[in-house]
Design goal:
Structural class: alpha+beta
Shape: globular
CATH superfamily of the largest domain: Aminoglycoside phosphotransferase (APH), C-terminal lobe
Order of helices and strands: HEEEHEEEHHHHEEEEHHHHHH
CATH architecture of the largest domain: Alpha-Beta Complex
CATH class of the largest domain: Alpha Beta
Helix content: 40-55%
Radius of gyration: 20 Å
Number of helices: 12
Strand content: 5-15%
Strand order of the largest sheet: 1-2-3-5-4
Largest sheet: 5 strands, antiparallel
Bound molecules: adenosine-5'-diphosphate, 2-acetamido-2-deoxy-1-O-phosphono-alpha-D-glucopyranose, magnesium ion
Number of strands: 10
Length: 348
């Protein structure tokens, strides 16, 4: 968890190191949970994104930046828009600020869901022919739900904050779904589901939407772009882009998965994700439930471990987030037949 504060002088001296000397303002920006992100403006009116990479989570920023420069270079070589690294000096980096577009934390209409999913499909498509070598595996077993369950069990056993007794309902919910946890990792191990280059963090605020057309003009937050499964990328879109309420909404009656947004996601994704095989298509609806359960498990684990991973704003923040994720899983389970039908009809 990085709740560190930075003085203006500190930030200006980092910017100075990158050759940006006429800074008129610099302040916290965005709502990411991992890195410390700042927007800086200079006297000419040019804006920058300055980020301190969270090195507790990303132990090898050089490998990460190597991935990012290969990925962004490849996308640009095909005429696409991407992050532009203006400077990097571990743990700081400077990006050009992408103008004319914005990120949102909650989808506002079906059209945005369609366009965001289409942007992620195009991203995966563009990277399908990235020349060798294989990208660095920045966070091994990142979406491996079986491993995430093991980490949850360890945190529950240690119970460092004495919080276990208060989460018995959440633990029961997770425990009732352990059987499904290995479905994608096992299918990847057997080769049924192929390894692809994937983003691995396709939440809705990691794609910049055009201010006018709402099109996804650039996929950002490329820290976890590495070998993975396309299913996890689609699943995280379902988690974040079908949600009727914020990831940390306390009133669970407002939290559910919207079928019309799910349908828009499927259409937007399948329009360009022509590479999917039959096993992937078959697991598309399932991937939404699995990744949402997995993120719920991760929030719960962090809550039990004393909030050391995700940035939190208050005492129970991770527990609140865990509850929304589990409610989303329940909502997707209720609509399972409909969601599977939508995938089948659009995959024809
Ligand atoms: P985190 O890993 O903490 O989620 P992100 O890289 O996603 O950090 O950045 C946090 C937020 O900052 C994004 O959701 C987006 O709103 C904004 N942002 C990041 N990079 C850019 C950029 N190049 N141009 C404009 N906004 C950006
Ligand atoms: C983190 O970095 P950000 O805020 O885009 C996390 C994702 C989680 C997400 C939950 C590197 O994403 O895996 O799904 O929070 N990123 C990392 O909101 O752990
Ligand atoms: Mg982000």
């Amino acid at each position: 968890m990085s709740n560190r504060t930075y003085t203006d002088e500190e930030l200006k001296s980092v910017l100075d190191g990158f050759g940006i000397r006429d800074v008129v303002s610099v302040g916290r920006y965005g709502s990411g949970h991992i890195n410390d992100t700042f927007k800086a403006d200079d006297a000419r009116g040019v804006s920058y994104i300055l980020q301190r990479i969270n090195t507790d989570i990303f132990p090898d920023p050089d490998a990460m930046m190597d991935n990012i420069s290969r990925v962004t270079g490849h996308i640009r070589s095909k005429g696409g828009r991407s992050l532009e690294v203006l400077g990097y000096s571990n743990p700081w980096r400077l990006y050009a600020f992408i103008t004319g577009a914005r990120t949102i934390d909650l989808i506002e209409n079906s059209s945005q869901a369609f366009l965001a999913a289409n942007a992620f499909a195009k991203f995966q498509n563009a990277l399908a022919d990235l020349p060798a070598p294989r990208l660095h595996e920045i966070l091994p077993r990142f979406h491996d739900t079986v491993n995430r369950l093991r980490l949850l069990d360890e945190a529950a056993k240690a119970d460092v904050k004495g919080r276990l007794a208060s989460v018995s309902r959440e633990m029961d919910f997770v425990n009732a779904r352990r059987e499904e946890a290995g479905r994608i990792v096992n299918a990847m191990a057997s080769g049924e589901i192929p390894e692809r280059i994937t983003h691995n963090d396709t939440k809705i605020n990691n794609v910049m939407l055009d201010d006018v057309t709402q099109e996804g003009v650039a996929v950002i937050d490329l820290d976890t772009t590495m070998p993975g499964s396309a299913l996890y990328d689609f699943g995280d879109m379902v988690r974040t882009s079908t949600a009727a309420a914020a990831e940390d909404e306390k009133d669970l009656s407002k939290v559910f998965s919207r079928k019309e947004y799910f349908e828009a996601l499927v259409k937007g994704y399948l329009k360009d994700a022509k590479f999917l095989n039959a096993a992937e298509l078959d697991a598309l609806a399932f991937s939404g439930r699995l990744i949402t359960l997995t993120i719920g498990i991760r929030f719960l684990t962090d809550y039990l471990a004393g909030d050391t991973y995700f940035r939190t704003a208050y005492e129970d923040h991770n527990l609140v987030r865990c509850r929304t994720q589990l409610k989303m899983v329940a909502s997707m389970e209720e609509q399972r037949g409909e969601y599977e039908r939508i995938v089948r009809e659009n995959a024809k």
